[in-house]
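Technical appendix A lists one of the benchmark inputs used to test multi-chain prediction within the project. The record comprises two sequence entries:
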Amino acid sequence: MTDSSTQIPQVNPPMLSPMALAVRRFRKHTMAMVGLGILVLLIFYVSFAGMLLRGYCVPLKQELRGEAWANCNDTGSKLLPPSSEHLFGTDVIGRDILARTVYGGQISVLIGISAAIVEVLLGAVIGSLAAYYGGWIDNILMRITEAMLTIPSLFLLIIGARFFGNSLPSVYILGRELTGSVLAIVLIIGVTSWMYLARIVRANILSLREQDFISAARALGASDRRIIFVHLLPNTLAPLIVSATLGVAAAIISEAYVSFLGLGVQGATATWGNMLDGAYRYLETAPWLWFFPGTLILLTVLGINFVGDGLRDALDPRSGRRM
Amino acid sequence: MTNYILRRLAQAIPQLFIISIILFVLMQAFGDPIATLGGRIPPRPEDKERLRRQMGLDQPVYMQYVTWLVGNDWNKIDMDGDGISETPGKRTGILRGDWGNSLVTRQPVIKMIGERLPNTLLLMLTVEVIIIIFSLTLGLVSALRPYSVFDNVVTGLSFIGYSMPVFWLALSLMYIFAVNFRRWGLPYLPTVGMYDPAVGKTPFELFKHMILPVTTLSIISIAGYSRFVRSSVMEVLGEDYVRTARAKGLRSMLVVGKHALPNAALPFITLIGLDLPFLLAGAVVTERIFAWPGMGRLFIDHTERADFPVLMGILMLIALAVVVFQIITDIVYSFVDPRIRLE
């Protein structure tokens, strides 16, 4: 029945909401669907693989599960190549790399999403304030934006990482202790990446501001805050969603770079990034140290970029052709 | 035109001042440069005190900034710690060409940057030339046959290239072409540094040492750039004047070469122009992995030691270059594209 209905040429296609049209375009985007598939697999991996993880921790003389196993350092079995006992091998102090990629993945994804939220909040607020009020507010905010764009982003990240250092307190989320450096990395990445988004939002709102529905809202006595957050920002949702998605990928890569340079998340907490710290010294002797976390980062970023590209085409068909 | 340049410069100068003040203040939180000095034998407290005075670190932040900016040669400073300022200052400040001395090596910052800059430029300019050639070719061919097998393969590969973390690609290339090639008895590539000390500073050695870092950086950038070229060529090919050119029977080669390409190249010129100053920064991660003695490594090495004169020197050099290149790009653009008028 459903098969035959799709074959009948419809003279009057049913009116679809813009959202339904976007979903339809997204589902036709092959690469986006592949990306979504990769991401779903990875989310399963970091969320549920931990339940299957267990091992006998020699120094503690007991069988450990989950995160405790990921943090068990058995110096007697350091730098072991992948085997049936340690599928991904062990690191320089004898921790199981498979377990660490699972728990590190949770932190890396958490950092990516949180940093993207910080980025979008900052970019949306700064861009809309600059465009809505114009004048000297616009001038100051855009000068700050330009100033931050003149310093290469990795340098900004390094300065931020040194600035925050270990000054932030630990927080507890979902029963796990996150050291202050996780919070610091989220803030640093968010604070150093909002500039392009702010410019996009500003450009969009500059043109929206002149339209009739804004004059109508103002005539009805809506406050500035209401106009910005209820009328203007929702109309520029498409670039916000796309930037947020791609921002997660960029943040995961940024975390990896900062950690690779030894300025990232400190302590026992694993992230995909800090698993790579110093791994290049074992290029010849222990390639599994960098190969597995690196490949997981590559797959995650690739999946997010595919999805982001599909979202761009789906939400804003005009901009999709440009890049 | 002159008016335009002057106005842009007038905007840029306060911007550079603000950047320098913010960076200078941020760097105060990097830690105590004196604490990391001394090596194995920690200096005595009175020695630390003396060092601090010699380097001017005992001054409040705003005085340190003023000294860094315009120098202290009109002033007398207290060198021996007796509360009386007796020694005339020697610094002339960055505005008069004195970039200060490194707190770690005591060498002039300008000399340290001068030693690293050619290495970085050699690496990055080579990369830039390769990027331009490959991304133009790939992007153009993709755009002329959109959604063909070639285009789809290039699209897929560029997404992978674009998503690849630099260190992953660098380490993989090193593992294949240096480690495994040597194991298999094949001719293998060197991994670190610019020269092999056993062979000496020959151009061929340099070339061999450049292959891996250049490949790493090129692959990642070509991915993004070729997408950019493809989309701008495709956009131009849809324009009315291209249809007109085809309609009057112009050969395809001429349509693309004379009408489409020059117009599609305009945004590419902007992109390159705005990217060029960032070449000065080098590639921090790549330089670190391949032990390439460039600016990026200078920056990261001296971040660890809170050596702020060196860091400020590098950052301000880049900021200045960015501002200057933005203006140059705008001017070049107005020459290449007569539709654009600078007021």
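The CA atoms of residues 242 and 259 of chain B lie 7 Å apart. The radius of gyration of chain B is 26 Å. Comparable benchmark entries are summarised in Table A2.
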